[in-house]
Each structure stands twice: as C-alpha cells, then as structure tokens.
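Audit log entry. Action: structure prediction of a protein-small molecule complex. Ligand: 2-acetamido-2-deoxy-beta-D-glucopyranose. The ligand was supplied as SMILES and no pocket hint was given, so placement is left entirely to the predictor. Protonation state taken as written. Sequence taken verbatim from the request; no trimming, no tag removal. Recorded inputs:
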Amino acid sequence: MHTLSKLFLAALPFTTLVGAHHHDRSKSRHRHPSVRRQSNNRTYSVQDFYQGEDFFNDWDFFTGSDPTGGNVAYQSQSDAQSKGLAYVDDCDNSTVLAVDSTSTVPAGGNRDSVRITSQKSYNGGLFVIDASSMPVGCSTWPSFWTVGPNWPLAGEIDIIEGVNDQVTNQMTLHSGTNQTCNIEKTTGNSTFVGNVLGSSCYSTETADAGCGIEDTDTSSFGYGFNNADGGVFALLWDNFVGMSMWHFARADIPADLTAQKPTPSTWGAPAGFWSAQSCDISANFFDHQMVIDTTLCGNWAGGTAYSQSGCPGTCTDMIANATNYVDAKWVINYVAVFQ
Ligand SMILES: *[C@@H]1O[C@H](CO)[C@@H](O)[C@H](O)[C@H]1NC(C)=O
Ligand SMILES: *[C@@H]1O[C@H](CO)[C@@H](O)[C@H](O)[C@H]1NC(C)=O
Ligand SMILES: *[C@@H]1O[C@H](CO)[C@@H](O)[C@H](O)[C@H]1NC(C)=O
Ligand SMILES: *[C@@H]1O[C@H](CO)[C@@H](O)[C@H](O)[C@H]1NC(C)=O
Ligand SMILES: *[C@@H]1O[C@H](CO)[C@@H](O)[C@H](O)[C@H]1NC(C)=O
C-alpha cells in the first residue's frame, strides 16, 4: 500500500517543457532492432562534457509554473545567478543549483528554485552525473531525469528521484507509445539489484506511475548520498539491450569512468535494468533532453508521502522556514554523455 501510493504519486504527470526545443521525431523512431545482442561490452567515449564555467551555456532555465504542482518559483538564468541560486564554484569547478535559503515565504507560497534542461537532445548513450551533494530534507523533491517531446509519447527516464526523508533512490521509466513496455524480471535471480515497484512502464496523464525500481543502497539518496561525499549515477541507454542504471558511492566509482573510458559491462549488476526484450526501447524513448531540478512539496513530496514521512508539521509550513533549505542544493562535479 505504501509502495503503491508512493508509486502513484511518484510520477511527473505534466512534464511539459515550456520553451524547450522540439525535434523532428522521424529521425529517431522506427529504428527497431533487427538483432538483439545479449550485452554491450564496448568502451564509450566522451560526446558532451558539461562542467565548470561553460556549464550554463548549454542548459536552459525553465521558468514556467512547476508541472508537478510544487511550491517553487523557477528562476530565469539571470535571476538565479543574481540571487546566488545557480553558480560555478571557483574553488572546485562544481556547478551549484540551490533553493532559496534566506527569504521568508508565506505558508503555501512559492520558494525560489532552479530547473535546467540540456539544449541538446539524445537517442541513446551513457549518461553520467557526478555530484558531491544533492538537495536533502523535508519537502524537497530533487530529480535528474530525461524526457522527450509531447509527454508521455516520447517517454521519460528518471535516474535520480525521491522525496522528503527517503533513504534510497527511485529509478523509473515512463513509456507512452507502446503499452507492451515492461520490466521483464521481477524477483530473485533478476539481472539487477534493486526492488521492482511496478512492472508496467506505460504511462498516461491519469495513470502515470511508470515502472520503478528502488535502489537498495542507502548511499544512493539524500543524507546517505551526501555523507558518502556523493557519487555517480549512470544510465546506459542501449536501444538493443535496454536501459541500465548504476549508482556508485564516491569511494566505489569505477576507474575506467574516472579515466573517461567507461566500459559499463565491467561494472557488475546494475541497480536497475529494463530489458529491450520486454520493451521496444527506440519506439518508446526518443529525443530526450536531460533535466535537473529541485521542487518542493507538490504531487509527490507534499502528498500522502509527506504525512507518511518522519517530517514535522505540514509541507507548506516547511516552505515558510528558510533555514530548512540550507542543504537543499545540488553540487555537481560534471554531467557527461558518452557514445
Ligand atoms: C564483446 O562481445 C562480443 C559479442 O558478444 C564478443 O564477441 C567479444 O568477445 C566481447 N569482447 C570482450 C572483450 O569481452
Ligand atoms: C573546469 O571546467 C572547465 C570547463 O568549463 C574546464 O575547461 C577545466 O578544465 C575545469 N577545471 C578543472 C580544474 O577541472
Ligand atoms: C508494440 O511493441 C510490440 C513488441 O515490440 C510490437 O509487436 C507492436 O507492434 C508495438 N505496437 C505499437 C503500436 O507500436
Ligand atoms: C530464474 O529463476 C527461474 C525460477 O525461479 C528459472 O526458471 C530461471 O531459469 C532463472 N533464470 C536464470 C537466468 O537463472
Ligand atoms: C525553522 O526550521 C528550523 C530547522 O528545521 C527549526 O529549528 C526552527 O524551529 C524553525 N522555525 C520556525 C519558526 O518554525
């Protein structure tokens, strides 16, 4: 029951990318695999490396009202930068995306935050984020995800997501084109480590739970992630094999990834895996842009999940108190896409 309501609320229902680029879908669709390989053991090379002072040149700031109903006012690039909510730290080249932790906001009001979208879109590859810290605390709902145009038609891939005092990461696929996209194995000897929360990826605006897998490692989310000095999340999107996701705490990051020559087939079982044998990947996921955001309360963090968490009072009471948001920030060492 807990899992079901959490799942139902977990989805990002109206992920309309206001101001986002729209792409011609004909390029990428219907490249249905004719040969299915068992595994992809190749070594990947850097395609795009987002880091340091150049980071914000390649991402757009979303300024619409939060499609997930959160109590946030998403800031433009100039406002976010002048308010100190988006900056590159000169000391270590990290990119910081913060929630306002100084202003008083009326209960039920919107607190300033940031949501950014990569200008470039992708149809596969190895997507990596290295962060030393993620937003934590009651009412927060941070996410690193990818999404295609016309949600849910081109799908959504949630790589990092969770709310409030959640202790492990939740990874979710939302397919919108083909109802036969499913997680193949659900128990025991599965080819991934995490726990399946729901096996049907098909999502609509009114039934948008998707197929989620919960990591089992408490360093994969929230305070546990930050206490491990953060780490790395990787999505390997292979149209022939499927979607694989890993999390590595900082001490366990594979040397080949640090060397920027990753061979994911050597990394061991992923935390989550969605097989191309049970989901037509290229039909359901295409032209994805990456998104990094922190929303507050809203459809998931503020709903039943808030009252079921160990958090005090109500979610909107939390919003009013600026000191709750001192640690509600992403500190990102880099985002990279390898091909
Ligand atoms: C990679 O996979 C291919 C096809 O399965 C196989 O022929 C090849 O030997 C593998 N290479 C390595 C280094 O494992
Ligand atoms: C910081 O990021 C820039 C890209 O904006 C890169 O050229 C530079 O090498 C990075 N510096 C360090 C110390 O990593
Ligand atoms: C959905 O995927 C299945 C399996 O790949 C395929 O047989 C079917 O034609 C697809 N349906 C649509 C509407 O694309
Ligand atoms: C997984 O377990 C099932 C029975 O629980 C068995 O039929 C199947 O062969 C197993 N698969 C693998 C790859 O071990
Ligand atoms: C604001 O939040 C801080 C930290 O959670 C707490 O110590 C403080 O009592 C709160 N203040 C009010 C007025 O709620």
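Audit: result stored. The two ends are 40 Å apart (CA to CA). The helical segments are 2-10, 77-82, 222-227, 255-258, 281-284, 298-301, 304-308, 315-320.
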